[in-house]
């Protein structure tokens, strides 16, 4: 089942984006280091899970797998130069561009009727529609 | 003396929403329309907004097919109802990080944004929870966080860490942690700039969906029913009720001065004009010397 991998990639993307938002808006870097650690652990688990599941051969699966690998590269970049990477003028445009590209990839691979969606609307105000 | 004009602009609509999702516990009480809207505050010196709505391009089909959110209109079309353009907006208060409030920041190239720090930090925390707990992170778009990071890099985003007075003249921001979202903001506008003010308006975000959440549509809370919280809350219903009380205290319990943007009956309480399905303007108040935008 691809859904947990897809959702995991979306959530990691959100964690990284939030981390960059906080860092660039002047939030406390030490608190964010904890968020980064959690994201790294989750990314490793996600990568292991999708690599061990050889059943995925579709284009969607390729997009999800590619996204997870690209997220890993971003995490590595953040880890190696944590404080600087988050806000550095040279690093940041690349990081933000890569985040946007991964989101596009996941958006294009989305399939809401099968539970692959960038946004989970189940707890949103629109969810009360009939 | 009134410094600001206030308009609520409806930019999309959901014609059939379960009443139980609007008012907590209102089970089997039918359906009602739920507009999607944002608020414009215009003074002589500023054009501010409370929330920016969502961008139709990514989710329009899903929202239309699965949830019946229809008739989306972009900010240029909606703001034209009050004679403004997205470029005119200099300040935006994001009440919370859900897709339909924080989802269209790119449309406002000259605006400075405010959002609660705790709203973002807890969003990261929620996104890291196991999938079985993902309802806690629902309605959050990672893309909005990424666009927020760009704003922050450009020096166009301020994290709100506590209540802030006079963010713009006469405008105060109040935190409501652990309510509808992780740390929602509500906006208090003192339209005479006095403290204490005799002309306060409250822009409630999603702390209130409908008048029942405020205890009814009568002029004062004292004559009304008990407050009922909204149907959807990630946080505490107790905190939602206490935030409701704080908002109503700010307006001297004059209920119509708390503005709920998802309330369809707003168009009956205030002078309004419906231009097209999902496109409407409600005129909450006018600044001195400003003429109505309804004609």
Describe what you observe in this structure.
The complex is a heterodimer of chains A (130) and B (295). Chain A has 130 residues and is an all-alpha fold. Chain A has five helices and no strands. In chain A, helix 1 runs antiparallel to helix 2. Chain A is globular and about 40 Å long. The model of chain A has no long low-confidence stretch (mean pLDDT 84). With 295 residues, chain B is of the alpha/beta class. Helices cover 23% and strands 27% of the residues of chain B. Chain B contains eight helices and 13 strands. Chain B has helices at residues 19-22, 56-67, 75-80, 99-102, 117-127, 142-153, 237-250, 266-269, and strands at residues 5-18, 31-42, 47-50, 91-93, 112-116, 157-160, 164-168, 171-177, 183-190, 200-203, 258-259, 272-276, 279-285. In chain B, the strands form two sheets. Chain B has an eight-stranded mixed beta sheet. A five-stranded mixed beta sheet of chain B has the order 7-8-9-10-11. In chain B, a hairpin with a 5-residue loop joins strand 8 and strand 9 (183-190). The chains are: A mainly alpha (130), B alpha/beta (295). Chains A and B meet through helix 1, helix 2 and helix 5 of A and strand 1, helix 1, helix 2, helix 5 and helix 6 of B.
């Amino acid at each position: 089942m691809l859904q947990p991998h897809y959702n995991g990639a979306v959530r990691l993307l959100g964690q990284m984006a939030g981390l960059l938002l906080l860092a660039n808006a002047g939030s406390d870097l030490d608190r964010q280091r904890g968020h980064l650690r959690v994201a790294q652990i989750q990314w490793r688990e996600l990568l292991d899970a999708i690599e061990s599941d050889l059943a995925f051969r579709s284009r969607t699966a390729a997009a999800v797998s590619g996204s997870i690998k690209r997220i890993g590269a971003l995490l590595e970049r953040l880890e190696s130069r944590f404080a600087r990477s988050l806000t550095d003028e040279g690093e940041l445009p690349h990081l933000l561009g890569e985040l946007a590209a991964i989101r596009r990839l996941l958006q294009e691979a989305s399939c809401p009727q099968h539970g692959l969606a960038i946004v989970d609307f189940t707890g949103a105000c629109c969810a009360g529609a009939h | 003396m009134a410094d600001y004009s206030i308009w609520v602009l409806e930019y999309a609509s959901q014609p059939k929403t379960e009443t139980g999702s609007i008012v907590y516990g209102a089970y089997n009480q039918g359906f009602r329309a739920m507009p999607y809207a944002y608020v414009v505050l215009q003074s002589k010196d500023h054009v501010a907004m409370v929330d920016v709505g969502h961008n139709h391009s990514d989710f329009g089909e899903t929202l239309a097919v699965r949830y019946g959110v229809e008739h989306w209109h972009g900010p240029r079309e909606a703001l034209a109802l009050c004679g403004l353009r997205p470029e005119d907006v200099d300040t935006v208060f994001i009440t919370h990080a859900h897709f339909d409030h924080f989802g269209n920041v790119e449309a406002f190239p000259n605006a400075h944004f405010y959002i609660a720090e705790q709203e973002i930090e807890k969003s990261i925390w929620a996104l890291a929870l196991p999938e079985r707990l993902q309802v806690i992170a629902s309605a959050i778009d990672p893309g909005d966080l990424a666009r927020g990071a760009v704003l922050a890099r450009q020096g166009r985003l301020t994290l709100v860490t506590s209540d802030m007075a006079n963010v713009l003249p006469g405008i105060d921001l109040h935190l409501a942690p652990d309510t509808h979202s992780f740390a929602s903001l509500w906006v208090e506008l003192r339209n005479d700039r006095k403290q204490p003010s005799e002309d306060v308006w409250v822009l409630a975000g999603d702390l209130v969906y409908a008048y029942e959440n405020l205890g009814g549509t009568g002029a004062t809370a004292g004559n009304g029913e008990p407050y009922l919280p909204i149907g959807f809350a990630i946080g505490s219903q107790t905190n939602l009720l206490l935030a409701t009380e704080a908002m109503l205290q700010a307006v001297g319990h004059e209920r119509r001065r708390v503005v709920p943007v998802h309330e369809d009956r707003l168009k009956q309480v205030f002078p309004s004009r419906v231009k097209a399905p999902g496109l409407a303007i409600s005129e909450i108040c006018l600044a001195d010397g400003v003429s109505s935008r309804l004609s």
